[in-house]
Every structure is written in structure tokens, then in C-alpha cells.
Amino acid sequence: MDDINRVARALDRQKIRLDPKDEASIRLWIDILRLEGTNVFHKDKLARAPLGSGLSEDLFCLVLQTRFQSEMFQGLGNALLCIDATHNTTCYSGLPLFTIMVRDRWGHGKQNAVFSDHI
């Protein structure tokens, strides 16, 4: 079973990775997502932190919000905002995944996800 899972992961990587280097692949995906109307904040470990942001220079952070998520956030985000975190959900160990969810007054919600190695 381990061999099957290893081969499946390798096949998935071939479909997902747009470049053998992770940094280049991420930047290519970001370009595609932006063309689709996704709001993206990306800071890799080589890029300087935005002035006044207080972010560490060696931080990797990727925040994505699709057009649909943005519309839901605008419509629901003023009442209640929830956050949850987990880690080791990707092939990159130690990389936490933060999920941000907004709910309306009836408890219905939509979520966004944030990947970062320092939050």
C-alpha cells in the first residue's frame, strides 16, 4: 500500500507542479489564479517583507481568496469570524494550514484557507 501511495503522490505532483522548483511552480499558479479573479497575497522566503507589515524576512506565506469567497466574506464577514489551524496536511512537513470562516446570524458559513510557515 505504501508503494501505491508513493506512486499516486508522484503522479499528482506531475499534474500539480508547473515547474520542478517549488518557488517557480507557486508563482506560475499565482499568475493563473489572479487571472481567474482570485485575491492572492504571497511572500516567499526570498522576497522582502512589505514595509510596516511586521513580517519576518524568512517567512513563507500564501493567502488565497477566490472571487466566490470574497463575495461571501463581504456578505457575511461583519458578524462573526472563526479561525482554525492544522499542520502536516500537505507534502511539506511543518506547514500549517489556517482556515478562516465567516458565519451569518443563522450559523451558515463559508471558509478561506491560509498556508504559512510562521503565523
Q: Low-confidence spans: pLDDT under 50, at least 5 residues? A: 113-119
Structural class: alpha+beta
The percent range for strand residues is 25-35%
What is the gyration radius calculated from CA atoms?
A: 16 Å
Instruction: Report the principal-axis shape.
Output: globular
The largest pleated sheet is described as: 5 strands, antiparallel
* Number of structural domains: 1
User: What's the count of strands?
Assistant: 5
- The averaged pLDDT comes out at 76
Task: State the helical fraction.
Answer: 25-40%
H and E string: HHEEHEEE
Strand order of the largest sheet: 1-2-5-4-3
Gap between N and C termini: 35 Å
Number of H/I helices: 3
Explain what you see.
With 119 residues, the protein is of the alpha+beta class. The protein has one domain. It contains 3 helices and 5 strands; from the N terminus they run ααββαβββ. It has helices at 2-16, 22-35, 67-76, and strands at 39-43, 61-65, 80-87, 96-103, 109-116. The protein has a 5-stranded antiparallel β-sheet. The longest helix has 15 residues, at 2-16. Residues 113-119 have low confidence and may be disordered.
